[in-house]
Amino acid sequence: MATPGSHPRPTRAQLLSAAGREIPDRVAPRVPLLLCGINPGLWSGWTGNHFAGPGNRLWPALEAAGVSDERLGADDGSALLALGVGITNMVARTTATAAEVTRDELRDGGVRLEGLLGRIAPGALAVLGMGAYRVAFDDPGAALGRQPHDRAGVPVWLLPNPSGLQARYGVDVIGRLLADAYAAGRARRPGWELSGPPPR
């Protein structure tokens, strides 16, 4: 499988030119687990792949969670979807850091996310970013793990931001929470298989 670093390293100018780009969701109806990031970073905007930044810990965490038997990378979004894990973002536009996303954008993103949940009905939702979740859903006390309230009838797990810029929580913590969310989503969507070819 591909690794997060399988693309040639871009120049600074190339990365900066990716600002503002949007990356399509990789989702499918009733997918067992939907991952929601804050917004795409410049590496994602440049490659067109979610969670593409060097050092992003999502990919080793997915392996640690047992979602895949081997290490996936940012180029493997279609393979990940076939395993029952979709990807979206709270805010679609690409920025250099998540700090550039405004509170209003996050609140609007929460509304959009609930609409998406209603349309595709995933088994579970994992939001990767505590601060973004707290703002988007006006829940300043939200803590890591299973949330007490569902969103659009979908159980929610709150995880740390896996970006390499956010190193407070390790792969083991992210992996454990992903494993819990994936198991719950699989239990609610037994026998799920991707219908048709995965989106490119």
Summarize the SSE layout with pairings.
Blueprint: H1 12-17, E1 33-37, H2 42-47, H3 58-64, H4 77-82, E2 85-89, H5 103-120, E3 124-128, H6 130-136, E4 145-146, E5 156-159, H7 171-188
Parallel strand pairs: 1-2, 1-3, 3-5
Antiparallel strand pairs: 4-5
Shape annotation: globular
Low-confidence region ranges? 1-5
Distance between termini? 16 Å
Main pleated sheet:
5 strands, mixed
* Percent of residues in beta strands: 5-15%
- Subunit organisation of the chains: single chain
Looking at this structure, what is the CATH superfamily? Answer: Uracil-DNA glycosylase-like domain
Give me the number of helical elements: 7
Number of domains: 1
Strand ordering within the main sheet: 2-1-3-5-4
Helix content: 25-40%
Find the structural class using helix and strand composition. alpha/beta
Order of helices and strands: HEHHHEHEHEEH
Please tell me how large the radius of gyration is: 15 Å
CATH topology tier name: Uracil-DNA Glycosylase, subunit E
What is the mean predicted local confidence, pLDDT? 91
- What is the name of the CATH class? Alpha Beta
Question: Would you mind describing this structure in some detail?
Answer:
44% of the residues are buried. With 200 residues, the chain is α/β, with parallel strands linked by helices. It has helices at 12-17, 42-47, 58-64, 77-82, 103-120, 130-136, 171-188, and strands at 33-37, 85-89, 124-128, 145-146, 156-159. The protein has a single domain, classed as Uracil-DNA glycosylase-like domain (Uracil-DNA Glycosylase, subunit E), CATH 3.40.470. The chain has 7 helices and 5 strands. It has a 5-stranded mixed sheet, sandwiched between helices. Helices cover 34% and strands 10% of the residues.
